[in-house]
């Protein structure tokens, strides 16, 4: 699902991330309550600074849950898993390339180095930098193997309160 961002969405997203959102393209995934949970951003901020995160996880419940995984060292375990699992590595590289291509769509100056970076701005397409970014990409595309492992580990996450206050 890729929708233009409404004013209500902007208000909810600002509440979710606790600051004004910048360079939003559209809502790419919504939670069961209908609130934005992933948004797509422009590859550059308004001042021209590259912004390597294309899909931004905004749902507070999911952000906290993924942060707990990161804090427990889960990213390091996944990197170790990648060193032994060539199939997982192959699918990660494909997801990284897909992410780069999605970043180019609708962008400007598509030869800029930001377009050759992977998820979370990594240069090495076999790297994992941010589980939030991988999970957000998975929620949008269903094709990110690291995001899928995160989703499987988190299980069904339900929001305890609606982000829009309704």
Structure notes:
The protein is mainly α and about 170 residues long. The protein has one domain. About 45% of the residues lie in helices and about 10% in strands. It has a three-stranded antiparallel sheet. Strand 1 and strand 2 form a beta hairpin. The longest helix is centred in the middle third of the chain and has 19 residues. The mean pLDDT is about 85.
What does this entry show, briefly?
The protein is about 45% helix and about 10% strand. The chain is mainly alpha-helical.
Mean pLDDT: 87
The biggest sheet, with number of strands, parallel, antiparallel or mixed sense and barrel status, is: 3 strands, antiparallel
Q: Strands across the major sheet, in which order?
A: 1-2-3
Can you tell me the overall shape? globular
| Whole-number total of structural domains | 1
Structural class call reads mainly alpha
How many β-strands, per DSSP?
Answer: 3
Oligomer: single chain
Question: SSE order, as H and E?
Answer: HEEEHHHHH
**Termini separation (Å)?**
22 Å
Low-confidence stretches: none
Rounded to the nearest angstrom, the radius of gyration is 16 Å
- SS field, number of helical segments: 6
Q: Report helical residue fraction.
A: 40-55%
- Tell me the strand percentage band: 5-15%
């Amino acid at each position: 699902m890729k929708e233009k961002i409404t004013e209500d969405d902007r208000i909810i997203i600002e509440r979710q991330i606790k600051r004004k959102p910048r360079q939003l393209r559209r809502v790419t995934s919504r939670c069961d309550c209908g609130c934005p949970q992933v948004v797509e951003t422009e590859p550059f901020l308004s001042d021209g600074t590259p912004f390597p995160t294309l899909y931004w996880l905004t749902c507070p419940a999911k952000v906290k849950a993924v942060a707990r995984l990161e804090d427990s060292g889960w990213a390091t375990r996944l990197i170790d898993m990648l060193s032994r699992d060539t199939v997982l590595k192959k699918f990660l590289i494909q997801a990284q390339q897909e992410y780069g291509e999605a970043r180019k769509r609708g962008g400007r100056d598509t030869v800029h180095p930001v377009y050759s970076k992977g998820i979370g701005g990594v240069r090495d397409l076999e790297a994992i930098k941010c589980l939030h970014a991988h999970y957000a990409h998975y929620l949008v595309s269903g094709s990110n193997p690291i995001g899928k492992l995160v989703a499987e580990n988190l299980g069904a996450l339900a929001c305890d309160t609606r982000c829009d206050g309704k």
